[in-house]
Amino acid sequence: MKQWVEVQDQSAIAVVRRAARRLAAQHDWPKHRTDELAIVATEATTNILRYAEKGRALINAPAEGKGDKIVMIFTDRGPGISDMDHMFQDGMSSGDSAGLGLGAIRRLSDEFDIFSGSEVGTTIVCSFAKDSPLCAPHGVEAVGLRVCHPNEEECGDDYLLRQTPKATDILVCDGLGHGPEAAAASLEVTEAVTATRSFNSEPGAVMREVTEKLIGKRGAVAALVHIAQPQMVLRYAALGNIATLRVRNGEVKRLPVRDGRIGARATRGYEETFDLEPGDLMILHSDGLKTLRDSYLPQGLLWKSPLLIAGFLLDRAFRGRDDASIVVIRIARDAD
C-alpha cells in the first residue's frame, strides 16, 4: 500500500486492518504475525478516531526489506497525549477495539516510537519483522517511505537503500509527473543506477553514467548519497529538485543541487564531500513534500527515530498533488 488512508470515520478501521492483513499475505507472513499486525492496525486507528476524530494511516513494506519488514504510520492533529504513562497502561483504548492500549501496541511491535503534544498532535510509528528482527549495520540508521498521488495507484517516486558494514548507499528519484509513466521513468533510473559499477562509491560517476544512458527518456530528478563506514565520510551528487538537508546540533544546512534532469544532457550533477559527526541527520525528499522550514520541524522531533521523523514529515509536509518520498538517515551518537 503506497497511499495514505484517511481516517475519518469507523469504516477506516476495517480498511486499515484489511490493508495490514493483505500486505502480510502478499509476503507470506505467518498467521500469528499477521494477527498481531491486524491488532495494532485496529487499536491505533481506533485511537485516532477516539482522541483526534481524524487522521491518517500508512502501511508499507519497504523495498529494501524484501517483504520481511512492514512499517505502520498513524498520525493525527488532535490535542496530543497529556499523560503518556497512563496511556501505556493496558485497557486504555476505545470500547470498539480490543482494549489493549498503547502498551500492547508497543509490545507487539519490533520497533515503536511516538511523538505527541498539544501543538503537534500524535504520530505513532511501528515496525514489524516477519521472523527475526532486522538489524541495521552499526553506525548508520536509514529508513525510506513513499506515497502515491492521491488519485494514483503507482508511485512515480522511488528510492534505493543499501547497507553493508562498510557503506550506506542511497538513491532518491522522482519521475517526471505522476502515475504509471512517472513510475516507469523512476524504474529506468533505479535499474540504471544498480547496473553501474560505481554505485557503491562514486555518486558523481554514477550520475554521469546514468544521465548518458538515459538521454532522450522521459526523465527524472535524483540525488545519490554514499556514506563510507567507519570513516563516516559522505559523498553526494544531485540533479534537479530533490532536497537534501543535513541537521547538526539543531542547525539545518540545505545542500545545493544542479538544475536539470536525467533524460537531458550527460552530467555528474552537483557534487559535495564532507565528514559526518555523531548525531548528524540527513533528510532527502522529493518535491511532493513542501520545503521543510522550521514550522515542519517542531521542537523534539529531530531527536526521535528516523522512521518517526520520516512518517511525521511525510504527513505534515505532503502537498497532496504529487507523489512524495523521503529518506532519513541518522549517524549513531556513539559512532567513533
UniProtKB/TrEMBL annotation:
Keyword annotations: ATP-binding, Nucleotide-binding
- Pfam families reported for this sequence: HATPase_c_2, SpoIIE
Matching InterPro entries: HATPase_C_sf, HATPase_dom, PPM-type-like_dom_sf, PPM-type_phosphatase-like_dom, Ptase_RsbX
Record's keyword annotation contains Nucleotide-binding: yes
What name is this protein filed under? ATP-binding protein
The family database entries (PROSITE patterns) matched by this protein are listed as: PPM_2
Per its UniProt record, what Gene3D superfamilies does this chain match?
Answer: Histidine kinase-like ATPase, C-terminal domain, PPM-type phosphatase domain
Taxonomic lineage of the native organism: Bacteria, Pseudomonadati, Pseudomonadota, Alphaproteobacteria, Rhodobacterales
List, in alphabetical order, the Gene Ontology terms for molecular function in this entry: ATP binding
* Span of domain PPM-type phosphatase: 137-331
